[in-house]
Amino acid sequence: MSRTTVSHVLSGNRPVAPATRTRVEQVIDELSYRPNGLARSLRIQRTHTVALIIPDITNPFYPMVARGLDDALGVRYRTLICNTDADREQERAFAADVSDRKADGMVIVAFQVEARDLADILELGMPLVSIGDRIDDPRVDLVLPDDEHGAFEVTRYLLSAGHVRIGFVWEPDGPGQHRLEGYRRALREVGIPYDEKLTALGGWNRPGGHAAMARLLEASDPPSAVFCANDLMAIGAIAAARAVGRRIPEEVAIVGYDDIDAAAMVSPELTTVANPAYEAGQAAGRFLLDRITGSYTGERRTLMLRPGLVKRRSA
Amino acid sequence: MSRTTVSHVLSGNRPVAPATRTRVEQVIDELSYRPNGLARSLRIQRTHTVALIIPDITNPFYPMVARGLDDALGVRYRTLICNTDADREQERAFAADVSDRKADGMVIVAFQVEARDLADILELGMPLVSIGDRIDDPRVDLVLPDDEHGAFEVTRYLLSAGHVRIGFVWEPDGPGQHRLEGYRRALREVGIPYDEKLTALGGWNRPGGHAAMARLLEASDPPSAVFCANDLMAIGAIAAARAVGRRIPEEVAIVGYDDIDAAAMVSPELTTVANPAYEAGQAAGRFLLDRITGSYTGERRTLMLRPGLVKRRSA
C-alpha cells in the first residue's frame, strides 16, 4: 500500500479499490481507539475545531464575534483564532493552514482575499461563512451586519431632531461606503442634497476624528450635527468640539457607530449604533453547525443583521 | 493487531513487541502522507495547537493576553480559545478536552481549579503555564503580573503629590488582595496608618465604583485622593465626584488600575496602572515553546511582570 493510496483514501479525491479502502479504514479505525483524540478525528473526519480568521483579536469588535461563535457552537467545539493584521499574505497562509488541519469549518471576517484564494478550502468541502464581506462564491454562507441601514437610522434620528446641515466623518475602506450610502439615503428621502463640503475623512481613529471635526467646524456655515462613521472618530470629534468651546449636544450634536465600551463612558455619553458583533458570530456558528452536521445542504444562505440605535446624551 | 495494541503504541503506556510497534508506526507513517495534517500530527505527536483557557474573551484583558501568546508562538502555532465564564465545572471539562485533543501546551488565566484537577494533563507531560495564579505544582510555569507592585507605585505617586488621606475602592476577589497590600505598603513606608474607614467595596464595575465613591465623599473628613482597584470603578468614581460638584483632580484626585482603552477617552483622562496583559501572554508563549521544543527542561520558572504607571489628568 503506497503513501499515495492512503492519501487518496483519506482525501476521497481519487477512486481506490474497495478492498484497499477497507484495509485503510480498518487501520484508521484501529488507530482511533480512545483515548487518542487525534486518531478518532482521523476516523470520523471531524475535528470539532472551527477556525476564526480575523484582523486582530485586540480590536473590540472581534472578541464579541468570537464569543458569539463559541456560544453557538457549544461545548464540543473549540475556536482556533488566526490574527491576520489585515495582511493578504497572512490570510492566504491561514487558509492553507486551516485546510491542512482539517478544521470542520471556517469563519472569515474582513477578509480581503478573493474567492479564488479560498478555492482549496472550498474544494475540500469545508463549510465557510463570511461575516461582513460578500464573498463571491455560492458555497460561502454570508452574515452581513446591515451598515447601510444603521447609518440610515442614525442620520434619520438627527433629521428628526431638526438638523438640516449634517456632517459626515468617515473613511472609504471597510464598512465606510455602506455607511456613506445610508447617510446619503436618509438625506435623499427628505430632499436634502448631498454636500461633499460637509464630509471629511477621519482615519477610523480618535486623532483622525479630532482633525476632521476641527475642519468641519472652521467652515463659515458649519454643520449643527455630525455623524462619525465609528465611535473612535466620534470621541475624537467630541474633544475637537470642546476645544473650540462648542457645547454638545446644544451647539453641535455628535453621533458615532459601533457602540464600543467607551461610548457609554465618555462625557457626554455617546449616541451611536450598536454593531451586532456577538449576533454575527452566533449566526455564523449556527450556519456552520448546520453544514457540518448536514442538517442543511441547500443553496448559500445570506442573513442581514439589523443594527440598533443607542440613544444617549451626545445627540 | 488489536485496538488495545495500537493504543499502547500510541500512548507509550505499555511495552509492545518491536515488530508490532514497527508495523503500527509504518501505518501511521503512511497515513501521515501530506496533505493530511491530522495524520502527520499523529505521527510527530505535535499538533501545533495551544489552548488558552480564560474566563471570557470579551473582557478586554484577555484579547491582549491572546494576542501576546499568538505573537510569541509564531505562525506555525494556532491558539484554541476556551471561555469558562469562571465556572469550575467548565474549567475541568476544558482541561479534559484539551488533553484529549493532544494540544502541545496550555495557558490558563484566572483559573480556579486546583492542581489536582490538572493532574491528567500534567501526567501526559503537556506543558502548562499559569498567568496570574500561583498554581501549586512544580510542573507549572508561572507568569505573574505584579499587582502588589503596581498598587504600591500608584499609591506612592499620590503620596508624592502631597495626599495624606488616600481612599481605596476595591473588591477582595481576583487581584484585589494584592492591590490592597500594595496600597497598604506604600502608606506604611511613609508612616501613615491604614484606616479601614477610607476603604469601600466597588464590585469591579462602574456602578459599584460610583456608589463606593459617593460613600467616601459623604464622610465628614473625606479623602483628597482615591485609588480605585480597576479602571471601571475609577470611571464610576469620576462620575460620582462630578455628581456632587467636586472638581477632578483639584478637589479629589482619582486613579485606576488596568489601563483599559476607555481610560484615555474619559474626561479627565484617567491616571492608572498599565496591566501588562500582552507581555504576560507573550511570556507564557515563550515558556511554552521552550518546553514544547525541549530547549528548556529544568525546574519550574516564575516570571514577575512589573506594571507601569500611566500619568494622565485625573491625578
Textual characterization of the structure:
- Two copies of one chain form a homodimer.
- With 315 residues, chain A is an alpha/beta fold.
- Chain A folds into three domains: 1-45, no CATH class; 48-146 and 278-305, Rossmann fold, CATH 3.40.50; 147-274, Rossmann fold, CATH 3.40.50.
- Chain A contains eleven helices and twelve strands.
- Chain A has a six-stranded parallel β-sheet with strand order 2-1-3-4-5-11, sandwiched between helices.
- Chain A is elongated.
- The mean pLDDT of chain A is 88.
- Strand 2 of chain A pairs antiparallel with strand 2 (78-83) of chain B.
Layout of helices and strands, plus pairs?
Two copies of one chain form a homodimer.
Chain A: H1 3-11, H2 18-31, H3 37-44, E1 49-54, H4 61-73, E2 78-83, H5 88-101, E3 105-109, H6 119-123, E4 128-131, E5 140-145, H7 147-160, E6 166-170, H8 176-189, E7 199-201, H9 206-218, E8 225-228, H10 231-243, E9 253-255, E10 272-274, H11 277-293, E11 302-305, E12 308-310
Parallel strand pairs in A: 1-2, 1-3, 3-4, 4-5, 5-11, 6-7, 6-8, 8-9
Antiparallel strand pairs in A: 10-12
Helix pairs in contact in A: 2-3, 4-11, 7-8, 9-10
Percentage of residues assigned to helices of chain A: 40-55%
Distance between the termini of chain A: 72 Å
The secondary structure category of chain A is alpha/beta
Q: What letter string, H or E per element, gives the SSE order of chain A?
A: HHHEHEHEHEEHEHEHEHEEHEE
